[in-house]
Amino acid sequence: MCTIETMSKFRNLLGGGCSRILVIVGLVLLRVPEALLENQCVLSDGRCTYNVQLSLAGGKCNSGPEPPVEFLTGTQNDNSKKMTDMEKDFQDIKDDHESRLKRLENTVQKVVLGSRDTSSKSPAKAPFLLGSKYAESNMETEEQLLTSLHKEFTNIRDRLRIKSDLLVVSEKKLNETLKALEMSQKSFLETSKDLLEAEDKVGSLQAENFVLKTNLDEKTIKLEHTSEILNETDTTLKILQENYNVTSISESKLKEELANHKTALNETTVLLDKTLTEYTTLMTKHAKAVDTLHRRERELIDCYTAKTATFCGFEDFNICGFTQENATDFFNWTRAKGRTPSSNTGPEQDHTCEGPNGHFMFIEASSRGKGQNAILYSPKYRSLSEQCLEFHYHMYGRNVGTLNVYTRAFGNEVASVWRAYGNQGNFWIVSRLYIPENLARVGYQIGFEAITETGFQGDIAIDDIRVNDGPCPSDSNARPVVVNVPITPNPDTETTTKEQLTRAERKRRRRLRKLRQRIADHLNTS
Asked: Which residues, in sequence order, are CB contacts of 34 under 8 Å at separation 6+?
């Protein structure tokens, strides 16, 4: 707020009177062309009061908060047009106010210039004659001028207030319009989404329609092809009907012939059954005879082999039919003569010839680990009475292991019957095994197993294996053999009569089916 002291200071600076105040007001109006002042300054000299709105914010004018104007683009053409019209109206009002202020400014300038000219023609002391008539007339003119200014400013403020109210109302309407526009946009987006989904569905339906059309075309083609086949089938059916009519004429004749052939077939079947029964009996007898013959041949061969291989000194390169075990042992026995390769172990000569040219079987303990074994099996022995099996062995060396002797009846597992372990001296030792009659009748094999220890001085040798009929001599070297002998015959050589009959019955039925098939083929051909 401006005070009287401020008024007095302005009056003294300018040379007196309200006319100087008009100059200040005119200058202020020149610097504020928009006539939008924030604060109000009241000027009074005791007789007249002037209400002027001045800006105290750094010389900038402010007409109050202007309503925000948002320009709409895109598809909102109507709203943009309304905003453009509102801006145009506001600009016209602003230009009108500026023109009014300019006219008011020119009027003030004319009055001020006229007062300056009058003061220049008056005496020098005229400014101090405030009580004269001249001063009173001058003051009246100033009062009229200020009154007109006050009215103009009041009219301007009223109009601005009205326009501001209109702008506020327009702003509210604009906000409502914007809200409605946002809702319309959301609805438009939802509608667009629904439209896109509908378009997708239409596209899928079109694709399905295309597929259905394609399938329909294929079905149509197949239907046409089926119609052609149906026509051909109808033609064939007519031909078959004609043939059936021809065939039905001779049906009675064929039935008579068929009855005659069936009678003949029944008679032939009866004869065939009798023949097959006789054939089955003969085949059973023949099978028994063949089986007995094969069994007797095998027994004869086994007996001949057992009798011809009763002694083996390993002088034969084939080692008398002895075989090496290659599945369950670590290494094999070796046929040798003279001394063994390692020193201080093994025999110096064989037992048969007692010279450097005789042969024997031995295991070489060099480069062998503890627990490694070698197994040698004899040929099959068989007899009708008890037997005595005699063999010589040599076990010399400080690292000698174990020598085991096994027997195995035909069809049974091996059984341990004799054993020697460690250094037995540098000489051949004889040992005998008593074979009972039941084991000799079934047939058996002898197995020699040598097991090494740690060290190279552990050679073990055997020689002169002999099988004699009868009991062993009564000495400390004979040891009886106890072996479980199988009671049932060997399944490889025995065949039950029931199985033979079953096979013969199957053969008879196959022949009968073949005969019936031949008769049926003959009837169809005739």
From this structure: 61, 63, 94, 97, 98
User: How do the domains of the chain map onto residue ranges?
Assistant: 4-190, 257-308+496-526, 309-492
CATH number of the domain at 309-492, please? 2.60.120.200
Residue of 395, 376, 514 lying closest to 453 (CA atoms): 395
pLDDT digits (tens, 9 = 90+) for 362-381: 999 988 889 999 999 999 88
Residue 428 identity: W
Cα–Cα distance, 373 to 451 (Å, whole number): 4
CB contact set of 209 (below 8 Å; sequence gap of 6+):
none
279 contact partners, CB below 8 Å, separation of at least 6: 504, 508
What are the distances in angstroms from CA 178 to CA 86, 183, 191, 353, 381? 15, 8, 19, 132, 121
Type of residue numbered 292: T
**HSE on the CB side for 245, CA within 13 Å?**
5
Q: Which residues pair with 429 in a beta bridge?
A: 393
Q: pLDDT grade, residue 149 (50/70/90)? A: confident
Residue 332 above 90 pLDDT? Answer: yes
Residue 514: pLDDT band with limits 50, 70, 90: confident
Which tokens hold the place of 121?
């023609």
Side chain identity, residue 510:
R
- Type of residue numbered 412: N
Predicted TM-score (pTM) of this structure: 0.39
The b-or-e profile of 306-339 (16+ CB within 10 A means b, else e) is beebbebbbbeeebbebeeeeeebebebebbeee
DSSP 320: G
Span of 112-126, 236-250, 389-403 with lowest mean pLDDT: 112-126
3 state SS of 62:
coil
Q: What is the largest CA-CA distance in the chain?
A: 192
